[in-house]
Write a structure and sequence with these properties.
Helix content: 25-40%
Number of helices: 9
Shape: globular
Strand content: 15-25%
Distance between the termini: 29 Å
Order of helices and strands: EHEHEHEEHEEHHHEHEH
Radius of gyration: 17 Å
Structural class: alpha/beta
Length: about 270
């Protein structure tokens, strides 16, 4: 971290601003020391009203928040479709957007709810790894991305990024080159590209820091190599709940078991 500050980044456009604001509320309300958080909002197309509402969230907690305008959203070579916009690529640009004095940054998707103290996650050290992330609960590696054993496919919704390593090794360029050279291999856009480039230089994080499970019976469908005890802890005591896939807790017919958790923090948000 840079001094005592814990740097955390979100990237959002106007369509996702409401959900990102709920994620920010959950993060701040459960942080042990909100005044030492520094939130960075990568603005991929926010209206003035959305920006003002997000700015109002951390005021009473003395949490620092800054907005950084990004223009990658217009790059038509960045493939995305269905329920994902090109704003998802914002995490790749963190090392060049943030000041060089910042060595490490957490990145969080906007469709998460933080349940535990985020400083516990910030205490992990990437060491020589450029990135730390949780194994994906649902998606497995396949021949398309050429990820060999014993490496697992990871989910990119919660990332601890070693900014120094990314800058030094030009990792963003490597990932973007893969996106542009092999668009036919991408089902999950930049997440697939990150896995293709970083599968063997990624530090695994405990599963509870990116809990992606919808229902208990999905345990039987998980990839091999999972630790039952760690998986049960992630299900019963998640630190971050990630609403992966097209079914979201703000959908009326959503049956996700943690939908009420989302609604709880929505009530506390502007």
């Amino acid at each position: 971290m840079n001094g005592r500050k814990l740097h955390i980044a979100f990237c959002t456009d106007d369509a996702f601003a409401q959900y990102t604001s709920v994620a920010i509320c959950s993060l701040i309300f459960n942080a042990s020391d909100p005044a030492t958080l520094h939130l960075w909002i990568l603005d991929a197309g926010l209206s003035r009203k959305s920006r003002q509402l997000i700015e109002s969230i951390p005021h009473k907690f003395k949490t620092q928040i800054d907005f950084l305008l990004v223009d990658f959203i217009e790059d038509q070579t960045l493939v995305a479709d269905r329920h994902i916009s090109r704003a998802t690529y914002g995490r790749l640009f963190l090392p060049e957007i943030l000041d060089k004095s910042i060595k490490t940054c957490l990145y969080l998707d906007g469709d998460v709810i933080v349940v535990d103290d985020i400083f516990k996650l910030g205490a992990f050290s990437c060491n020589s790894y450029p990135i730390a992330a949780v194994d994906d609960f649902y998606l497995t590696k396949d021949d398309t991305l050429s990820i060999p054993n014993p490496f697992n496919y990871f989910n990119a919704g919660v990332l601890l990024v070693n900014l120094e390593k990314w800058r030094r090794d030009n990792i963003a360029d490597q990932i973007l080159d893969f996106v542009r050279d092999y668009p036919e291999k991408l089902t999950y856009w930049d997440q697939d590209a990150m896995n293709a480039v970083l599968y063997n230089v990624r530090m695994p994080l405990p599963l509870r820091w990116n809990q992606q499970i919808h229902f208990d019976d999905c345990l039987s469908h998980l990839p091999d190599g999972r630790k039952t005890s760690e998986m049960k802890e992630a299900m019963s005591n998640p630190a971050i709940v990630h609403f992966v896939g097209p079914e979201k807790p703000w959908h009326y017919l959503c049956l996700h078991p943690y939908k009420d958790l989302y609604l709880k923090y929505r009530e506390r948000s502007p």
